[in-house]
């Protein structure tokens, strides 16, 4: 029979967080092996429970959640999001500027689908959360990666951004706090990005899903709060700050200069209507989450579980010969570097596969986040301290044997 091929639109789409190595891990689990998973920020599997009041609100409202909602979302959660944008000092946002989605992920794809024609370019950070690159490609656009500088605490390289702008550039993506590096951008850096967007009339897509997952007293600034004459699309949700990944409750806020974007916004409205609506049970959780007790502060503050695990993970990682890592100021991840002399890796996916096979530890290779060199990997520090200690002991053993095999010990 004639083979059925996948769409050519998927030729440049990659999402290695759930890629081939993950499939190998599933196979090993089916064979009875226990895998320590440091590959994905799924908080529930590590016993990070959502706030109880969110769960109870969803249960109480389930009887009212059977019908379609407004295509942009129900009024009450959108009003709560509007109030949240005011707390973040984002000006001029109305109810009609807010779209609720099945997680921020759906809205990322929607935002790109409504914008891009074939050949349009979008500036995306390297490293990035790979859905951004995939969404640009799937929408017919061309992702152009600008460098985040590891030697400068993973800050965006403004000169590199400027050098990659062409007449085809339509937008720039800013992931702050950053996944996978854990970087948090100061106001000065955000202002420079705004100025670039202003000069070149770029849309700014701001991924702020970790804006409350902050350590050491750090404060997050929404880039959309810094200007009124640039178009911003800010994305957020309940998945991380409220440990509610599976509820798929995210939102997108359109703000700034909207007068010249009426046609684009009409496109967003069309796509929102085509998917009918976001899931209603998840929408019922939003108002309670944003207005309730912010338990994330207990997890990231002094004595908090996430803070302890971040500190332990960083300590154990950087104690391994040839491993360096910028300590994250936010989010749930680290993006350590392997000394290329001590670890002459040619294929980092194969490297991660070998680690999984030998030590039963699952990571994601750096190139899975569109990092150009095979010398990084991403670590999730969500497991408890005992499991983290076990995992990093196994990683250290694997790296020691790797150095011996390659004569770089």
Automatic annotation (TrEMBL):
It is an enzyme of class 2 (transferase). InterPro entries: Ala_Aminotransferase, Aminotransferase_I/II_large, PyrdxlP-dep_Trfase, PyrdxlP-dep_Trfase_major, PyrdxlP-dep_Trfase_small. Keywords: Aminotransferase, Pyridoxal phosphate, Transferase. Its cofactor is pyridoxal 5'-phosphate. It comes from the Bacteria. GO terms for molecular function: L-alanine:2-oxoglutarate aminotransferase activity; pyridoxal phosphate binding. Belongs to the class-I pyridoxal-phosphate-dependent aminotransferase family. This is alanine transaminase. It comes from Undibacterium pigrum.
């Amino acid at each position: 029979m004639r083979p059925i091929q996948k769409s050519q639109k998927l030729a440049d789409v990659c999402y290695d967080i759930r890629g081939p190595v993950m499939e190998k891990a599933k196979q090993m689990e089916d064979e009875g092996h226990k895998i320590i998973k440091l590959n994905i920020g799924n908080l529930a599997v590590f016993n990070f429970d959502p706030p109880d009041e969110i769960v109870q609100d969803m249960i109480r409202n389930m009887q009212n959640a059977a019908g379609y909602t407004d295509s942009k979302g129900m009024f009450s959660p959108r009003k709560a999001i509007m109030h949240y944008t005011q707390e973040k000092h984002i000006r001029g946002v109305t109810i009609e500027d807010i779209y609720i989605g099945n997680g921020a992920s759906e809205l990322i794809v929607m935002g790109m689908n409504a914008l891009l024609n074939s050949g349009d370019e979008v500036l995306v950070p390297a490293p990035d959360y790979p859905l951004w690159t995939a969404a640009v490609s799937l929408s017919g656009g061309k992702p152009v990666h600008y460098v985040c500088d590891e030697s400068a605490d993973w800050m965006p390289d403004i000169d590199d951004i400027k050098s990659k702008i062409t007449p085809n550039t339509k937008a720039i993506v800013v992931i702050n706090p950053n996944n996978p590096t854990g970087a948090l951008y100061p106001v000065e850096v955000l202002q420079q990005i705004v100025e670039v967007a202003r000069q070149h009339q770029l849309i700014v897509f701001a991924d702020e899903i970790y804006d409350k997952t902050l350590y050491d007293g750090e404060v997050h600034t929404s880039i959309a709060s810094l200007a009124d004459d640039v178009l911003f699309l800010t994305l957020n949700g309940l998945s991380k700050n409220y440990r509610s990944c599976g509820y798929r409750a995210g939102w997108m806020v359109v703000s700034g200069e909207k007068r010249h974007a009426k046609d684009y916004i009409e496109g967003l409205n069309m796509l929102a209507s085509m998917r009918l609506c976001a899931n209603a049970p998840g929408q019922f959780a939003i108002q309670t989450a944003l207005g309730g007790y912010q338990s994330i502060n207990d997890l990231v503050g002094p004595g908090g579980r996430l803070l302890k695990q971040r500190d332990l993970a960083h300590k154990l990682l950087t104690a391994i010969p040839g491993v360096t890592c910028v300590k994250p100021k936010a989010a749930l991840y680290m993006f350590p570097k392997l000394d290329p002399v001590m670890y002459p890796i040619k294929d980092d996916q194969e490297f991660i596969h070998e680690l999984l096979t030998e030590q039963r530890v699952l990571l994601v290779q750096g190139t899975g986040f569109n990092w150009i060199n095979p010398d990084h990997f991403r670590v999730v520090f969500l497991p408890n301290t005992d499991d983290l200690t076990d995992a990093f002991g196994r990683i250290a053993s694997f790296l020691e044997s790797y150095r011996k095999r390659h004569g770089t010990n």
